[in-house]
Specification:
alpha/beta; 18 helices; binds zinc ion; 10 strands; three-stranded parallel beta sheet; binds D-arabinaric acid
């Protein structure tokens, strides 16, 4: 290639990159898994700088550098915990971790100058905010069009909200989360019995019928996008215990009938360190064969799957290549870091093309939508741009309309199409 040709090629590459970055930056996203709530859920919707600083990712980090008795930490008011995190992770050392950086991105994008390092000043900004208006501000800043909540009928704080009903809010879609059923059947069965379902705990036909009724009642109430569970690395399928039987005999037939996917988030070791509470969970490599068996044996069901261990990612992609009823999504929790997002997203584009959902935020605090999406978009844009540049170099013409179409798919459209195929 002559010098002039090289210059033209570089310019063409740069144009493709600009185009992709522009589209990814502004694409409205449907965030398919979060832990934030619509304003009608009242105090369950968390927001503001104290909530940002006491995010469990940061709690784990503060105990590494400034341990104290766990009970003493938890006895402090939220603002005291936030002061502690701010002091040890932001003032006494530079906040380089991804979770720390996230707080700065939020402050910065809200127009609050993080260089001021003045926590009380930041608090004042949030004190004058109204939840409803703030949802608008955050959704606009993060270019989020809608989020899927995590709705847990076993949660004593959340259940009464559903008893009160309330208007549906299209910005906040629902997901029926059922971990206790599958991971703690003996006590879950007692709760079902308390709520009037004819369940004895023996997993006889009466129990299975009762569980199906329970699921159907909550589906009718919540109208969820999907049913969901998070499972430990020891998850196996098929298996004869309560988890395997309830999946096979209750969850899958109910999901099929309701026309919704079943989402599995696999690989969390719960409560490795209970003193840390929500921050005390860990990770372990899980069995991808279980996912493969599940999808293979149940071709009429749709499965959304994300796995927590880096080691599982390649095998999961290869499995999804074989199984059209498996939709891989997100860089979950400990994988939601730029280095991991880059590696996983590259691998997924190379093995699955555009037939996956690269990211979900898992935001627990409303404001986190801002940083989680801005950080992820930057990485996804870079990886995607590399792919389009490769296509352009192979003589393919990359058009703006087609990039926009593809990006819309990656940011929620493909997920919606996948969910639509679950309809009976
Ligand atoms: O990412 C998180 O905040 C975790 O604590 C979990 O909630 C996890 O995402 C899950 O949904 O189980
Ligand atoms: Zn989650």
């Amino acid at each position: 290639m002559g010098k002039l040709d090289m210059k033209t090629a570089d310019r063409d590459d740069a144009m493709v990159r600009d185009l992709v970055c522009r589209e990814v930056d502004h694409a409205p996203v449907l965030d398919i898994h979060t832990h934030i709530y619509a304003p009608r859920f009242g105090s369950l919707l968390l927001w503001g700088v104290d909530e940002l600083l006491t995010y469990h990712y940061l709690v784990a980090e503060v105990f590494r550098v400034a341990p104290m008795p766990y009970d003493r930490f938890w006895a402090m008011p939220k603002s005291g915990q936030a002061d502690y995190v701010w002091k040890h992770l932001f003032i006494e050392r530079s906040p380089v971790s991804e979770a720390c950086r996230g707080v700065l991105t939020v402050l910065h994008e809200l127009g609050l100058n993080p260089a001021r390092r003045d926590l009380d000043l930041f608090r004042k900004y949030f004190a004058s905010m109204d939840a409803e208006a703030y949802v608008e501000t955050v959704f606009r800043a993060a270019h989020v069009r809608s989020v899927v909540m995590t709705n847990d009928p076993f949660d004593d704080l959340e259940r009464p909200m559903w008893d009160r009903g309330g208007a549906a809010d299209p910005r906040f879609q629902t997901a029926l989360r059922i971990d206790p059923l599958l991971t703690g059947w003996p006590s879950a069965s007692k709760r079902l019995a308390d709520w009037g379902y004819p369940v004895r705990g023996d997993l006889g036909s009466g129990d299975l019928d009762g569980v199906r009724r329970f699921l159907n009642d909550w589906i009718a109430r919540m109208k969820p996008r999907y049913m969901a569970v998070s499972l430990s690395p020891s998850f196996r399928f098929p298996e004869d215990g309560p988890c395997g039987r309830l999946i096979e005999e209750c969850i899958l037939p109910v999901a099929r009938q309701a026309g919704i996917p079943f989402a599995l988030m696999i690989g969390v070791r719960r409560q490795v360190n209970p003193g840390l509470r929500l921050a005390g969970d860990g990770v372990g490599a899980a069995d991808v064969q279980a996912v493969s068996e599940l999808c293979m044996r149940h071709p009429d069901n749709r499965f959304l799957v994300t796995m927590l261990s880096r080691q599982n990612q390649h095998e999961l992609c290869v499995t999804a290549r074989k199984l059209p009823n498996l939709h891989v999504f997100g860089c979950w929790w400990f994988l939601n870091n730029p280095s991991m997002i880059e590696e996983m997203t590259r691998q997924r584009f190379e093995l699955l093309g555009l037939s996956h959902t690269p990211q979900h935020s898992d935001a627990r605090v409303l404001d986190q939508l801002i940083y989680k999406w801005s950080h992820s978009r930057a990485v996804i844009a870079e990886v995607l741009a590399d792919k389009y540049v490769d296509l352009a170099r192979a003589g393919w013409q990359v058009t703006e309309a087609e990039v926009r179409r593809d990006v819309a798919g990656l940011f929620g459209g493909t997920f919606e199409q996948f969910c639509a195929t679950a309809k009976p």
